[in-house]
Amino acid sequence: MNDDFFLRQTFQLAREGMTTNQGGPFGSLVVRDGKIVGRGYNQVTSTNDPTAHAEVVAIRDACRNLGTFQLEGCTLYASCEPCPMCLGAIYWARPSRIVYGAFHSDAAGAGFDDQFIYEELDKPREERKIPMQQLLREEANAVFQEWEALEKRIPY
């Protein structure tokens, strides 16, 4: 079994999810040592969860199955280049590598355009479409200080 084998399985997951009206045409797998430890397909519309992208679903499944929140030593396979949200989740999960099929520009051609998010991230906070307001910084930072002092914290 190689990258092509696992990537083709993400295409099948994408088809399964879309033909059963679970969500858009995206699939993902997490593989460790040649074994699938997490599966996911897009479930945004069926769960009314905008974060239920295939990669996030696969990460959640893999972490549950492995009993960890870190995916070191794993490869994440995705039918399409991960969007900014999924890429953030992938970096937090820390797999060893990512293998994907289509480019995000290919997804845009099918109506899944996340270019506006990339553009928003490049803008200063005060120029973004969704207004952002920062308040109570000292109180917020007090929670971080409590975290740093917590003896039984689990770092990540």
What report would you give on this structure?
The chain is an alpha+beta fold. It is 46% helix and 17% strand. The protein has helices at 3-19, 44-47, 54-66, 84-93, 104-109, 115-122, 137-149; strands spanning 27-32, 35-41, 74-80, 97-102. Strands 2-1-3-4 form a four-stranded mixed sheet. Helix 4 (84-93) links the parallel strand 3 (74-80) and strand 4. The longest helix has 17 residues, at 3-19. The chain is globular. The two termini are 31 Å apart. The mean pLDDT is 95.
Question: How would you summarize this macromolecular structure in one to three sentences?
Answer:
The chain is of the alpha+beta class and 156 residues long.
End-to-end C-alpha gap:
31 Å
Described by the principal axes of the CA atoms, the overall outline is globular
Global structural class: alpha+beta
Main beta-sheet strand count, sense and barrel state: 4 strands, mixed
Rg from alpha-carbon coordinates: 18 Å
H and E string: HEEHHEHEHHH
Helix content: 40-55%
Key structural traits:
single chain, 156 residues, alpha+beta, four-stranded mixed sheet, 7 helices, 46% helix
How do the helices and strands line up, and which of them pair or pack?
Elements: H1 3-19, E1 27-32, E2 35-41, H2 44-47, H3 54-66, E3 74-80, H4 84-93, E4 97-102, H5 104-109, H6 115-122, H7 137-149
Parallel strand pairs: 3-4
Antiparallel strand pairs: 1-2, 1-3
